[in-house]
C-alpha cells in the first residue's frame, strides 16, 4: 500500500513537470510575439519624420545586432529553463518506471493474493491468488469475481464492493469462503479498498488464506465441547447412581439438607418417603443379579415418572429409594406414596430372565414446624415408618404415627385405594 501511494505521488510529480513544460512553450510563443511587437514599435518612430525621438530610433535601428542580441539572450535563458524541465521530466518518468517495476514485483511475489476488479470483472490477479484457488492467472482474468465466492457470502461481498465503489463507508476487513477450481471452499480474509486503475475506479483486495486458522478454531471449539461434555459427564457420575441414574446417597442427602433448610426458612413442610422393594433378595436368588439390576432400573424409572420435576429422588442404598416432596403435608405425601406404590405394582418388569412381579413398601415422614427439622431425625422417621410397613405385611404405605382406629383416614394408609390429593401436587 505504501509503495502504491509513492507511485501515485510520482505520477502526480510527472504531471506537474509536464504542465511546467507546457507553460514554457506558451512563454516562448509569448516572447516571440513580444519581440516582434518591440521591433515594430522601434521601427515606427524611426519612419515618422516629425517625431523628436526619430533620430534616436533611427540610430537604434541602424544597429543591426541589438534586436538579435536581445533575442539570443532570451532564447538562451529559455533553453536553460526548458532543459531543466526536461531533466525533471526524465527523472520523474524514470522513478515512475522503477516504482511500477517494484510494485509489480511486490504483487507478483506477495505472500497474499491480490485481485483488482471493476463491476465484478477481474482485471488483475497475482500468481499467489491463482495458486490459492488452483487456477492460472490467465484463467481468472475476465472472470466475475463474485462467482468465485461461496453462495452464502456472495451477496454480502457484492453489496460491499458496490457500496465501496460509490464511496460509502464499508467494513474493509472481513472473512469469506472462496470456491477453488475443484469446487471445494476455502476460507479467506480480505482487506478491500478502491483504487484508480486504467482511467477508472476499481476494487482491490489483499487476500490471505486462513483455512488452517479456521480448522484450528473448529478443532478448539470441538475440544472445548468435548471437555465440557466430559466435565458434565463426570459431574453427573459423581452425583448419580450408575445403575439407576438416580441421585446417589451423598447427593441425595445434600439435596435433602437444602430442601429442609428451605422448608425451615419459608416455614413450609417437607415430606420424605423411604421406599424399599419387597423380598428383593429372593428376586436376586431366583433371577440372578442381572435380573435384579433390571428390576432396580425399571423401578427407578417408574418412580421418576410418578413425581414432580422439582422433587428429589435418589438411591439411598441397595434397593432403597428416598423421595423428598417440598411443600407437601402428610395427607399429600401419603397420596404421593400410594401413587408410587401403585406404579411399581402396576405390571411385572420385563427382563431377559422373564417377567418379574415387584411390590414395594413405603414409609412417610414429615419435616417442618412442629415436626423435626433435623435431617438425620427426618430420615430416621421415614426409615422407621418403612419398617412398620414391612411389619404390616409389605406393599403398603405407613407413617411414623401409631396405628389409628380402623375407621380413621390414616388407617387406610395400607390400602391401595387411598385417593387423597396434595394441594401443591401439580400432577393431579
Strand percentage = 15-25%
Total of helices: 11
Rough outline: rod-shaped
Uncertain regions: pLDDT < 50 for 5+ in a row?
402-428
Structural class of the helices, strands and pairings?
A: alpha+beta
Give the strand tally: 12
Radius of gyration, in Å, reads 50 Å
What is the end-to-end distance? 75 Å
Order of helices and strands: HHHEEHHHEEEHHEHEEHEEEHE
Mean pLDDT comes to: 80
Give the helix/strand layout.
Blueprint: H1 2-47, H2 54-62, H3 66-108, E1 113-118, E2 121-125, H4 127-133, H5 137-140, H6 151-165, E3 173-179, E4 185-197, E5 200-209, H7 211-239, H8 249-266, E6 270-277, H9 280-306, E7 312-317, E8 320-326, H10 330-345, E9 349-351, E10 354-356, E11 360-367, H11 375-391, E12 397-399
Parallel strand pairs: 11-12
Antiparallel strand pairs: 1-2, 1-5, 3-4, 4-5, 6-8, 6-11, 7-8, 9-10
Helix pairs in contact: 1-2, 1-3, 9-10
What does this structure look like?
The chain has helices spanning 2-47, 54-62, 66-108, 127-133, 137-140, 151-165, 211-239, 249-266, 280-306, 330-345, 375-391; strands spanning 113-118, 121-125, 173-179, 185-197, 200-209, 270-277, 312-317, 320-326, 349-351, 354-356, 360-367, 397-399. The chain is of the alpha+beta class and 428 residues long. A 5-stranded antiparallel β-sheet has the order 2-1-5-4-3, with helices on both faces. Strands 7-8-6-11-12 form a 5-stranded mixed β-sheet, with helices on both faces. The protein has a two-stranded antiparallel sheet with strand order 9-10. Helix 1 (2-47) runs antiparallel to helix 3 and helix 9 (280-306) crosses helix 10. It starts with a helix and ends in a 29-residue tail after the last strand.
